[in-house]
Write a structure and sequence with these properties.
This protein is mostly helical. Helices cover about 75% and strands about 0% of the residues. The radius of gyration is 21 Å and the shape is globular.
């Protein structure tokens, strides 16, 4: 059975999504979705353990057709790491609450939420596991279409508008990506990633390859919300149901980052990307701009969900900055930040879901005095906020430490200073929220509020607690990220 794990990782949630629709029962769909999410997490952990212990990738040929003629699923330390991140989040988000909390969806329609989320999970896991470039596009569209549906499930016109805006921009991004793949196929005659990496070395000087590279980077830039291609993200995160925001914010852009990393380092190669095209000349300024623009925009928001959405744009800037450094420390910082940000932002959006379940609003002014009314929920907010800043003892510090090391190794001390300054800006918008929650009195006419039940607190604290556990004991994620970075760069430990 274990030899089929790469394909089961994708097939199991796909079949379960169809089963949820056929069941048409919210309780049965919920139990099935939770079981499938945990199954996917166990499979991902097993494959990560295997590739770490053997040092060799896992190759699975669909239908027994050998690559490059058949479709290959290829699992190495890089995408095994991302598979763990992507499957970890729904394993925590799906059990959140006892029913409709954080969904804004009629109980009779909740089975559709579980079906759409499992379908989105299928696409995200498929994009990560496949070794075929065209399959990346197929799974990209599967995840995107189901994500548009998840966002539109909120009972408001603004959610429909956000989903439609994401649909338009996501379609443009997908089209750009597909055009780039078509040009690569025209130049090489193959779509297998390993075969592409070999054949592209013979046609580096072709203008077609250069144009294909541009289309692919721009298309993926839209999908992962790289500044200034991020316009879809604030509304999508703000107006989606809170539980959906937690899932999307912690997974979708992470897989987009992974696909960009896979194309830059594995398919096109370090020499072509950083020495021939010098992508760092473009990517570093955009990453820095995203870090500061996202943080400044977050400071001025009156909606907590929108504040966290703009914060995500800044955090994506950290990830792409690590990629653009092109060295082990910087790339490891970007890769470990995939994990760290998934824990932090997933947990913070679940905090919002807890408050919305009690107040039915995410307006910051309405959160005044909640520190005493919802002590455990607000304590999770404090820890998550400290992780965003990068306070010692949290996972946020681990990522930024590696990024600063990478900047100094590249001889970019100014970039290292900018990383630290952007962290101070994160402290500003986190303090804005904490000041309202803990230092403003609860209005006399405000409705009484009590703490949320354990069914909501436990999932929230699993993610938020992870920011402390892996902040203090950072050896495991750091070691995996370093091995992944060394593998991508083709250097030894």
């Amino acid at each position: 059975m274990t030899e089929h794990f790469p394909v089961l990782q994708v097939v199991v949630p796909l079949l379960a999504a169809a089963a949820c629709v056929l069941l048409r029962n919210r309780f049965a769909a919920r139990v099935l979705a939770i079981a499938v999410a945990w199954t996917c997490l166990c499979i991902a952990l097993h494959m990560l353990s295997t590739v770490l212990s053997t040092g060799e990738p896992i190759s699975y040929m669909l239908g027994g057709w050998e690559a490059p003629y058949g479709i290959e699923y290829r699992i190495d330390v890089v995408n095994a790491w991302v598979l763990v991140i992507v499957s970890m989040i729904p394993s925590v988000v799906l059990p959140f609450g006892s029913g409709s909390e954080g969904l804004d969806l009629h109980p009779d329609k909740q089975y559709l939420y579980y079906a759409a989320l499992l379908l989105c999970l299928t696409g995200l896991l498929g994009m990560t596991a496949t070794g075929d470039a065209f399959n990346v596009f197929v799974f990209l569209e599967i995840s995107s279409l189901s994500m548009y549906t998840l966002i539109a499930m909120a009972d408001s016109r603004r959610a429909f508008r956000a989903a439609y805006s994401y649909l338009i921009q996501g379609t443009i991004g997908g089209t750009f990506f597909l055009i780039g793949l078509g040009l690569l196929y025209q130049s090489t005659g193959t779509l297998n990633m390993a075969d592409l990496a070999v054949r592209l070395q013979l046609v580096w000087e072709s203008r077609t390859v250069h144009v294909a590279f541009a289309f692919i980077v721009v298309g993926l830039g839209i999908k992962l919300a790289l500044f200034p291609l991020h316009q879809w993200l604030p509304d999508a995160y703000t107006y989606a149901p809170p539980r959906v925001s937690a899932f999307v914010a912690a997974t979708a852009t992470k897989v987009g980052i992974y696909v960009l990393v896979r194309f830059l380092f594995t398919i096109f190669g370090v020499v072509f990307v950083f020495e021939v095209l010098e992508i760092q000349v473009l990517l570093v300024p955009l990453s820095i701009a995203g870090m500061f623009v996202g943080s400044f925009a977050a400071i001025n928001q009156s909606s907590v969900k929108r504040l966290l959405a703009y914060s995500s744009i800044a955090q994506i800037g950290y990830m792409t900055l690590g990629i653009s450094m092109g060295n082990v420390s910087g790339l490891a910082g970007g890769l470990v930040h995939l994990f760290n940000h998934a824990l932090t932002k997933g947990g913070l959006f679940l905090v919002v879901a807890c408050v919305v379940a009690r107040l039915n609003t995410d307006r910051l002014d309405d959160w005044a005095g909640l520190g005493r009314k919802m002590p455990w929920t607000m304590a999770a907010l404090v820890v998550g906020g400290l992780s965003l800043i990068g306070i010692p003892g949290t996972v946020g510090l681990v990522s930024k430490w590696y990024l600063v090391l990478g900047a100094f190794e590249r001889g970019w001390p100014i970039i290292a200073v900018l990383i630290m300054l952007s962290s101070l800006l994160a402290g500003v918008y986190v303090w804005r929220v904490l000041e309202v929650v803990y230092f403003r009195p609860r209005p006399a006419d405000a409705p009484d509020v009590e703490e949320v039940p354990l069914s909501m607190l436990i999932p929230t604290w699993i993610l938020i607690g992870g920011t402390i556990v892996f902040g203090i004991g950072a050896e495991w994620p750091s070691t995996v990220a370093l091995q992944a970075a060394q593998s991508l760069l083709g250097v030894g430990p």
